[in-house]
Amino acid sequence: MWSPNGSETVLTVLYWISNFSLPPEHSLWAAAANGCDAFVTSDLKYNQFLDAGDLGLTAVDAGHFPTEDVICPVLVQYLKEKFPGIPVEKSASHREAVQYYV
Do the beta carbons of residue 49 and residue 59 sit within 8 Å? Predict the structure, then answer.
């Protein structure tokens, strides 16, 4: 994985936040202050990528759908167990809205 110093690195401490409850820059500083190597989130602005590099963090903007969709099966199972009389299903049509072309 790329790191701010331009070398290959092994990440040992990761800060993951799918949806910011605080402004992203606060979370970036919290990650750096707690010794994290990387910051993974769903939505970074250009200047926040630069801030992450200045703080020595590898920044990963993994997108909303990929970071949030992974929890849906867990929530479905939880809701099925808590409310057995109510049908619960994960949408089969909900998908990543952003299309990538390489």
Answer: yes
Closest CA to 86 of 71, 101, 76: 76
- For residues 21 and 69, membership in a common domain is answered with no
Contact present, 48 and 58 (Cβ < 8 Å): no
**3 and 22 share one domain:** yes
**One-character DSSP codes across 15-80:** EEESS-SS-HHHHHHHHHHTT-SEEEES---HHHHHHHHHTTPEEEE--HHHHHGGGHHHHHHHHH
Segments forming the whole domain that contains residue 78: 65-102
Q: Are residues 55 and 69 located together in one domain of the fold?
A: no
Output the tens digit of pLDDT for each of the chain's 102 residues: 445 556 665 556 656 665 555 565 568 888 888 888 888 887 788 888 899 899 988 888 888 888 888 889 999 999 999 999 999 999 988 888 877 777
Domain identity same for 49 and 74:
no
